[in-house]
Amino acid sequence: MRKLNAAVVGATGIAGQQFLAALDGHPLFEVTAVAASQRSAGKHYLDAIRTPAGAVQWFCRESLPESCIGLRVEDAAAFDSTQVDIVFAALESEAARELEPRYARHVPVISTASAFRMEGDVPILVPGVNPGHIPLIRSMQQRRGWKGFVAPNPNCTAVGLVITLAPLQEAFGIRSVLVTSMQAVSGAGRAPGVVGLDIIDNVVPHISKEEAKVEAETRKVLGTLTDAGIAPAEFPVSATCTRVPVLEGHTECVNVSLRRPARPAEVKEAFVSFGREFTELRHHSSPRRMITVLEDTFRPQPRLDRDNEDGMTTTVGRLRECPVLPDGIKYVLVSHNTRMGAAKGAVLMAEELIRQGYIP
Amino acid sequence: MRKLNAAVVGATGIAGQQFLAALDGHPLFEVTAVAASQRSAGKHYLDAIRTPAGAVQWFCRESLPESCIGLRVEDAAAFDSTQVDIVFAALESEAARELEPRYARHVPVISTASAFRMEGDVPILVPGVNPGHIPLIRSMQQRRGWKGFVAPNPNCTAVGLVITLAPLQEAFGIRSVLVTSMQAVSGAGRAPGVVGLDIIDNVVPHISKEEAKVEAETRKVLGTLTDAGIAPAEFPVSATCTRVPVLEGHTECVNVSLRRPARPAEVKEAFVSFGREFTELRHHSSPRRMITVLEDTFRPQPRLDRDNEDGMTTTVGRLRECPVLPDGIKYVLVSHNTRMGAAKGAVLMAEELIRQGYIP
Amino acid sequence: MRKLNAAVVGATGIAGQQFLAALDGHPLFEVTAVAASQRSAGKHYLDAIRTPAGAVQWFCRESLPESCIGLRVEDAAAFDSTQVDIVFAALESEAARELEPRYARHVPVISTASAFRMEGDVPILVPGVNPGHIPLIRSMQQRRGWKGFVAPNPNCTAVGLVITLAPLQEAFGIRSVLVTSMQAVSGAGRAPGVVGLDIIDNVVPHISKEEAKVEAETRKVLGTLTDAGIAPAEFPVSATCTRVPVLEGHTECVNVSLRRPARPAEVKEAFVSFGREFTELRHHSSPRRMITVLEDTFRPQPRLDRDNEDGMTTTVGRLRECPVLPDGIKYVLVSHNTRMGAAKGAVLMAEELIRQGYIP
Amino acid sequence: MRKLNAAVVGATGIAGQQFLAALDGHPLFEVTAVAASQRSAGKHYLDAIRTPAGAVQWFCRESLPESCIGLRVEDAAAFDSTQVDIVFAALESEAARELEPRYARHVPVISTASAFRMEGDVPILVPGVNPGHIPLIRSMQQRRGWKGFVAPNPNCTAVGLVITLAPLQEAFGIRSVLVTSMQAVSGAGRAPGVVGLDIIDNVVPHISKEEAKVEAETRKVLGTLTDAGIAPAEFPVSATCTRVPVLEGHTECVNVSLRRPARPAEVKEAFVSFGREFTELRHHSSPRRMITVLEDTFRPQPRLDRDNEDGMTTTVGRLRECPVLPDGIKYVLVSHNTRMGAAKGAVLMAEELIRQGYIP
Description:
By secondary structure, chain A is an alpha/beta fold. Chain A has helices spanning 14-23, 45-48, 66-69, 93-104, 136-144, 156-172, 196-199, 210-221, 264-273, 276-279, 302-305, 343-355, and strands at residues 4-9, 29-36, 73-75, 86-89, 108-111, 149-152, 174-183, 224-226, 229-231, 237-243, 250-258, 291-293, 314-322, 328-335.
């Protein structure tokens, strides 16, 4: 099978670079176009990410893919999506709202932006978590008259949360969820990102709009597809989102009230066996296990566990009963916010959408 | 009034040094004796806190009190408490279990150790929070045949929690409490404390025994003194305690289910007006307000707010409704773990016990 | 004596705020005007430093001065300096180049900007270090036809360096200087400042233009005023400037080749006795000692020593011989980059200029 | 060829674990024995590195080698080295002084300890840097009557330094060296290591005994083997060693006075071409380039460059002239202190000693 031609839009930012890294050497996709703001347009990619002082601003652990260095950056606002088979979009929300529909008229748009997440005919897709929502894509296409579609992933904090809630919902049902996140600075990107002066020796107890996103998107991802669209899950979610001096990897302390009582051992079993059908598809970007459970009571830690399975598994520990919530359990999770939580998770989703025939 | 002669036991560690700093220039107490482990015994205080390489290990922001420099350190295990009017004890739990009763036979022992906190006839006293528990001291004295007593403060993480729960309990009643803490490294002391290699760019999601202490001590402090001792508060508490790369100041994300509904404005009013009778006593170590409420949605932050009122006020922000708990509210607090949360809070308690005639 | 009316220009940034804090309650100055960029013009000061999300961006340890809260921010570009007696300017270099001369036509301008530092008729003044350069102000006024003048302080890294080099130059002569700095993130300000993602768990071995400034300004400050202007000191300076994950306080490792041999004890004596005539003037913002020498071999440390004497003394330690440089010594210094190294140092300079009759 | 049986002594500490990681899957060595202090003796390795609370204290990025999990830890003090072909020793200096000679009586001991570095008949070997010192091993064996030998690597800070000085010495000659290091906390190990409370938001300007080691070992490594042993290099070295809040990777700011003038481009060429004969041997643990030169003026940075070539290359940047030293140049280097700077560098040395017939 020939590789699909892929464009990465918003290619100079952190999330865009993560797309480029995740697509480097990919068996199904070939990055044939990169686009960014007008400021970068016309430059070779390497020059577009150079500072005036000459520093190359490449933020991924992986090397800058050789194949990208010489690509000429196009203006995202003028980008013609018919020249590719798929667009991976890492745009700011406002730009996404305007540009993603233009691209989607012709080709699938896999997006890390929040712009369309809460639209009625748009599913928020998480690999292995809500395959039942995928068919909503067809309604979107019909309703909007698009050949392509927009498939946003959720907020990075919601990703680890829904991955661990999905097996609980399936096995025991969920009555309610409380989550306190300690989020890494990479989640804020770089322009301006979190200033060192604000975060060293500190915790910032608020991230703009984050809690509302986590609450709403979690319920939508775990909701049910009906004829009228996705009915959000009925359980309430209460989020407190904070920023901590950690580079990568979101830590989340989760309390869940289950619908039927479950011993920690049963919950652990639900975690461990979750998503096996999905991981057995052995998608290129897939972790071997959706959830990795650690017994060490001092784990998971973001620095030690964010890179488990190249950042694509969600690591869970400290599983125990919650003495407050009815049939309550609690646990701590670490999820890599710029791997499974962003671009590479979106690439994994694209791999599954190919398998199911939604792409191209 | 002549000052009371005070001993600081465990005087070389962080908490002991905080006692010395809090007592420096104090109008009611004069530190006339310091004691520590046998290793330090016989040395002048300044030499006792010097490393072999010559570095002076003094950890407080305040200068090392001149008056302490020349004091000869006594062996805590052999310390004769009859030579002082009061002992401020900052011992490890095991040493406290053995030594505090010996001291208490003769004089009051104000303690930061956990050893006696859960004894039936020992109150855990928090200034301004549970004055009703103070009379239990008399039972302790009678039952144990002591002239003095042991008055432990709670675990540092429980301190900020009970200070903010007390007004809620009084005004609205409490059904349940969930708390996730992000604790500073100073809480672990220095030997060995938290190793830099473990905490830089990281969160450690567990602190040994901490959660059980926070849960049990919170309920005891907010319980009711009966003839049979203190009946713990009936509401359950669920704690998740984590360590973050912050030097001082514990941050706590708190969710509370109230017994009767309250709007955030009412809750704020309860916070703001809490403890006025106590603060109006204008004790030497007292904050002007027990609780400081900030409207800025990005506050409280440990680095910016730990030193509010010299670390003696508890700073609260992000007050809002919790969509999960019945009549639920949530907020974030910052409490200075080595000021109000440890030695200086204990000194403030001693000031109140003097006023009430329990000391000397 | 009535207080002088002072304007703080660039009042919303870090350095401007430091000016406001340093001038709060000052016996000689009353802040009667604040100015900033057009974006802030017309707002009350408190509103000008509020983010869209409502957070008050006040960065000093001191409280926001009550007297500033209600001042209406003027447009720096249109600010009429005749309404005040003195301007404290904390502008970006480009804005300083344009605006400072306008203000200086009428009144003295005490500046933290680099714009005029290397002009031939402008001295770079450091309190207590180069009083001999002050008369150059008169030439500047005559040559430029200004009633006022521009008096810039040096780059924050040069401040601690020249303060410690001055006594060496005087007592022993200097042949050459090598310095490696480990600079705090606050030196970069906040827009954008140093991004947390760049500096956590890291060292950045370059700061744009910093090394050239340190080298040139150090030689100028320690130069000699001649009829032709200031002849820079003849010794070469070699600087390597790096950024480290420290909030405040620059650390500098200095190697100096002296003109005549000196034992460490003599060097120490030169440090300790330096600037006594100046500190005995007891200016409001003055430290009691220009240089504080610590014997503890693990000091100075930025976190422990930056706030010595409210950040106005330079703390030196690790004084020892350098086996490489002829008659070489080496030492480590910590200097508070946003106190003596910036606004408060500039205010101290203004106090001295009043005493000498240059202001008003 | 059958693999050599190797013992790792001091196997539970950081450096010992780095040995285990570096030897995992190694084509020439098979770890058949592990030894540690008496406290660990008799336990399975996995149990020996478990805390009382159950946490597995494994500190390497690589997984704990499966083959080590079940090895029974022997008592280092009683370890019989005749059962193996080679010992990799990661002992504290005092233990090394006593035990390494016992092992060396029978087999080669590759060591990270400082105990024997300054002995007259012991070379300090750095792969690719001082092959001319290797024959000294024969004198050691004869003089001491050992079948084996002790081959210590240098202090981790000296490693990157000598690797970059060697090509300068060869191409231009060296008159003198000044170095200021910013060292990572992992260099201090874990018991107690650097306490978080000391290093967060801080720089510690002294590391016990480090400067003397860097100065003396650098001169010895770059010295000349004569009949009377190794004559240290004649140039003086002046080191200032500091600790910064960085996890891994030492940064060093180096100033070198050359014997003959060299333009930066020539120096760069010397760096780039250094060690080609050695790297072309393609030893299992070898980097492809001994030195990697970066043009980006903001590099090298420890977080971004420590892992270049799996931590085995020394990354250099900011190469420029030094205006102070005669024919002076300066540069910044980053060297991975626990890879090339410790165990894995020692393993690479062992690979070369096999090739040259010194092992077994």
